[in-house]
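Example S7 (structure tokens).
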């Protein structure tokens, strides 16, 4: 029996020697997986940042923006890092983010009036995706759906209605007649008590910025265009 037991000990020893490198390789693989996961895991906080925090870096379609947290409308979007889209609001004409809810008592009468929805500029930043850039839509898409004749205004704007039965029925194309690409917007018409609103779109690399504001703003369209220039420069400052 001793002669039979001896080889079994050798077998167990050999198996142990074979299992050691296997266990080492398994442990090495697990360690590598943990390392890769830690490097790829998002680094932004799991809870939204404070409304009073400084502007946070946000990327949309690989384009970097500096966004004040107080301007972000949805708490779930209020963290740095990549986003599919971001929804913002700013007071007009100050271009400041609105005060948090519950602080209206601290506002003056003028600030309370400015906080009204009719005095807000809403901004959405998202990937352009498969659609044409705004300037190409202006040149190649909108003319196919618009009336043949535009109405000129004394302030330099032209109003071109879209035809009924088209995707843009009930809207007008509003643009600077001398240079349409300098300023243009699609605006809904006032219907009863429903006020008209305008959409103005701009492209930064692969990210599209859509700004929505009351149609009444176009009565001072030059100030609106200059304000949008300032706001876009704040959100996407040019880095040297």
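Recovered sequence:
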């Amino acid at each position: 029996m001793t002669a039979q037991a001896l080889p079994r000990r050798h077998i167990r020893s050999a198996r142990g020697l074979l299992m050691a490198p296997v266990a080492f390789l398994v442990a090495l693989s697990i360690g590598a997986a943990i390392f890769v996961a830690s490097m790829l895991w998002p680094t932004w906080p799991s809870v939204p940042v404070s409304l009073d925090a400084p502007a946070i870096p946000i990327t949309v379609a690989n384009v970097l923006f500096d966004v004040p947290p107080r301007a972000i409308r949805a708490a779930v979007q209020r963290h740095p890092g990549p986003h599919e889209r971001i929804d913002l609001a700013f007071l007009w004409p100050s271009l400041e983010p609105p005060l948090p809810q519950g602080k209206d008592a601290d506002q003056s009468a003028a600030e309370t009036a400015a906080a009204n929805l009719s005095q807000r500029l809403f901004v959405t930043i998202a990937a352009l995706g498969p659609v044409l850039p705004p300037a190409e839509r202006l040149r190649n898409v909108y003319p196919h759906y618009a009336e043949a004749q535009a109405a000129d205004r004394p302030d330099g704007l032209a109003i071109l209605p879209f035809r009924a039965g088209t995707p843009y029925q009930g809207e007008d194309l509003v643009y600077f007649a001398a240079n349409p690409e300098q300023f243009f917007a699609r605006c809904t018409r006032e219907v009863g008590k429903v006020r008209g609103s305008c959409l103005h779109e701009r492209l930064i690399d692969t990210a599209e910025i859509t700004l929505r504001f009351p149609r009444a703003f176009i009565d001072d369209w030059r100030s609106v265009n200059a304000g949008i220039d300032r706001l876009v420069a704040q959100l996407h400052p040019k880095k040297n």
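Notes on this example. The longest strand covers residues 120-127.
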